[in-house]
UniProtKB/TrEMBL annotation:
Cofactor binding note of this UniProt entry: Binds 1 zinc ion per subunit.
Residues given in the record as Zn(2+) binding sites: 74, 76, 223, 311
InterPro entries, per database record: Amidohydro-rel, Deaminase_MtaD/DadD, Metal-dep_hydrolase_composite, Metal_Hydrolase, MTA/SAH_deaminase
Organism: Marinobacter daepoensis
Name of protein: 5-methylthioadenosine/S-adenosylhomocysteine deaminase
Length: 442
């Protein structure tokens, strides 16, 4: 081997197992992932890496499976500060009597700063490297994600009623357009448009949201068909299913993410397929609020993209996407009455490459391929509850929880090392969170 065949790079990660997600369903062994700057330079067998790469640091993960960082496509991050505040209630009672009043009283810029940091700490600790947020003061959560170095789609809220963030649709749209302008070129932040739901946003603001999306290329994320009541009520009031109304208003496109979709009939499948809109499945929120069941396998069978999200911590009550994957796989099998529904590999794809596709970023993130951005995680499989290892993909979905995630990198930057967060001061965060607890209780 001559010196000129040796490439120098930043980091070499030796992985016992590797699930690149692309190609689908593959588990590789004894691979070296070579990182250079923000990107993956190469993925080669370790013996080949010995001959061709010299790196500043080498990390040996000989009990670990390495995979793309997870993408949590729906949440309300600052609501982590309301975790466990109101449980065991149906959606409208939970919103009207508990969440909306608490939000009216406590949500502020500081609340969003601290709540977003709490959510990011939990997500980073459990393997998420990209998340989507829909909450008040999106400029604050955008800054928090950027400062921490976490990738985030930040959807500014849009609804008819006034809130702490604005007086109504016109102000939300003006502030939202400014958010898009400010963050659109950022490495980490993807600004987007977040009309809350068909029953909280009227046609005019929805049309303006579509115009803004077309002007800027920003994505649209909306809660849709969360409950049977929502669909029945809309049919009574407008004569249309909410999804049909969204289609008529131009809301549905390949740049649109429909969150929940527990009510899906043949006409809905046709609209989703025709428009290329994406579905964001949030099984634990749907279970906890008794909202219904999204027929994931049926939607996938129609060649419609399905991704996954935790929803906010107040209706879940955690942001551990590995836990969400297990629930998703279990529920999909029960709903389809078919044990083959939503396989482990398909579930992992939902939390990675399919999420990236919904964000329009599947050329950059969502799988481990040379040239893509270095967003990856390692899961330590040495613990007795993950032994023995026949198939790491099976363990990741059916036996794992997020606490087994040991390492993560975003944009090539280490975020988690041996289970320790590198960019968030956890003791300081816990102090602040407990101050909020005292305030909210009093
Ligand atoms: Zn939600």
């Amino acid at each position: 081997m001559t010196a000129d065949t040796i490439t120098t790079a930043d980091t070499r990660i030796d992985a016992r197992w590797l699930i690149p997600v692309e190609p689908f369903g593959v588990v590789l062994e004894h691979q070296a992932i070579i990182l250079q700057g923000s990107r993956i330079l190469a993925i080669v067998p370790q013996t080949e890496a010995d001959h061709h790469y010299r790196t500043r640091e080498t990390l040996t993960l000989d009990q670990h499976v390495v995979l793309p960082g997870l993408i949590n496509l729906h949440g309300h991050t600052a609501m982590s500060l309301f975790r466990g505040l109101a449980d065991d209630l149906p959606l409208m009672t939970w919103l009207n009597d508990h969440i909306w009043p608490a939000e009216g009283k406590f949500v502020s810029e500081q609340f969003v700063t601290d709540g977003t940091r709490l959510a990011m700490a939990e997500m980073l600790r459990t393997g998420t490297t990209t998340f989507s947020d829909m909450y008040f003061f999106p400029e604050i959560s955008a800054q928090a994600a950027h400062d921490t170095g976490m990738r985030a789609q930040i959807c500014f809220p849009l609804m008819d009623m006034p809130t702490v963030w604005g007086s109504g649709p016109e102000e939300y749209l003006n502030k939202g357009a400014e958010l898009i302008r400010q963050w659109q070129q950022d490495d980490y932040v993807m600004p987007a448009i977040g009309p809350h739901a068909p029953y909280t946003v009227s046609d005019g603001p929805l049309r303006s949201a579509v115009a803004l999306a077309e002007d800027t290329g920003a994505a649209v994320q909306i809660h849709l068909h969360e409950t049977a009541f929502e669909v029945a009520d809309a049919l009574k009031n407008t004569g249309k299913r909410p999804l049909a109304r969204m289609a008529e208003l131009g809301v549905l496109s390949s740049n649109t993410q429909c969150v929940h979709m527990t009510q899906v009939d043949e006409s809905d499948l046709l609209l989703l397929k025709q428009t290329g809109a994406h579905v964001v499945h949030c099984p634990e929120s749907n279970l906890k609020l008794a909202s219904g069941f999204c027929p994931v396998q049926k939607i996938l069978d129609h060649d419609i993209n399905v991704t996954i999200g935790t929803d906010g911590a107040a209706s879940n009550n955690d942001l551990d996407l590995f836990g969400e994957l297990k629930t998703a796989a279990m529920v999909a099998k029960a709903v389809a009455n078919d044990a083959a529904a939503l396989s482990a590999h398909r579930a992992l794809e939902m939390a990675t490459l399919r999420g990236a596709k919904a964000l329009g970023r599947d050329q950059e993130i969502g799988s481990l391929v040379a040239g893509k951005l270095a967003d990856l995680i390692a899961v330590d499989l040495s613990d007795p509850y993950l032994q023995p290892v026949y198939d790491p993909a099976s363990h990741l979905v059916y036996s794992n929880h997020g606490r087994a995630v040991s390492h993560s990198w975003i944009h090539g930057v280490p975020q988690l090392q041996d289970g320790i967060l590198t960019r968030i001061d956890v003791p300081d965060l816990v102090l602040r969170v407990n101050e909020w607890r005292k305030q909210i209780l009093s």
